Structures are given as structure tokens and as C-alpha cells.
Prior knowledge:
- The structure is a single chain.
- The chain is 11% helix and 67% strand.
- By secondary structure, it is mainly beta.
- It has a single domain (26-208), classed as Beta Barrel (Porin), CATH 2.40.160.
- The two termini are 41 Å apart.
- The relative contact order is 0.20.
Amino acid sequence: MLRLSTVLLALLLLTASASSLFAQDKLVVFGGYSYLRPPITADETNCPTPEVCPVIPVFLLPVTSRQNLNGWEFTGTYRFLPFLGLAADFSGHYGPTVGNSNGTSRTHQYTYLFGPEVSLPSRVSPFAHVLFGGTHQSISASSFAGSNIVNSVLATTDSGFATAIGAGIDLKLIPHVWIRPIQIDYLVTRLHSNTQNQARVSAGVVFHF
């Protein structure tokens, strides 16, 4: 009888421990700095004088160049199991369109992605995810007057498909608060009828609830 009571008590404690493990850290929230270096395609016009530029552009030329965009990333992950969850990821990046010599045109690029995420539930917790969704890019207009030439960037916006495959690591600081020193994603977007491949690098703070 005593042996049966001991077994039942052990099973009860094991069940309680398992329930506690599954109940904690259901929601993981990350927020922090993010860096992106995408290939940006801008429509430029070159005109001989400022007077004729608004009316008769000499030519319209799509120009593609990689630019450094700084911004933010926010991710919320709901964990069905301690090692498996569904992530919703949002990011915004901002910076110059074609360089300082071409005026003040700015690019804003946003992504909104969703997908599964796997992680190792420990004090040092690596993770990986595959995300799918969309992206939106807006380019503001600007003009730059050079030697007998007026170079202008036209304002454009475009939206398209996006996907990301990435991984990172979280380090526990105190209960409910972690640090994410690095997360790297291979981000693929579809804008202006072309495919863009770029790395997205992020770091910040993680909260477990």
C-alpha cells in the first residue's frame, strides 16, 4: 500500500511538473534593432535644364543599388509546445534610395511574416524559423542639380511576396527577460517584377510570459 502511494505521489508530481513546464513561456515577445541591405530599384530621370525636366524628361532609367537601411523588428511567438511555436514577425527599415549624391530620396520598407519556429527551451536557447508573408516598399521623390543636368528620383510604391529563413540565439538574464545578441535571416522579396535577396540582421530584448 505504501509502495502504491509512493508511485501515485511520484506520478502526481511528474504531472504537475509537466503541466507547469507547458504552461510557462507560452508567449515569447522580441523587439529590437534591425539592419537590412536590400537592392533598391528607383526610377530616375535626367533632364538638360530644370525648366524642361517636369515636362520632357530626356530619359527614364531604372537604377538598382544596394543601400544600408536601419530600423526595427518585432516578433511575437505563441508556443504550442516548449520547443514549437507559431511566429508573427514585423519589421521596418529606412534609409537613402540611391546615395547622397542623388538628393534626399528615402526608402521605407516593411515586412509582415508568419510561420513555424522551433527552439531549445534552456537558458541558452537557439532557435530557427521559416516565415512567409509580404513586403511593402515606398520611395520618396527628390532631385539633384549637377553640371547642366537635373537628376530626379520618382516617387514609387510597390508590394509583393516575401519569405525568410533564419536562426538566432537567446540568452536568459533574469526570469522572463532574455537577450537576443543576434538573429540572422535570409530574406527574399518580390518587388518591381524582380526578386531581391538580402540578409536581415537583428538584436534586442526578449520577454517570456
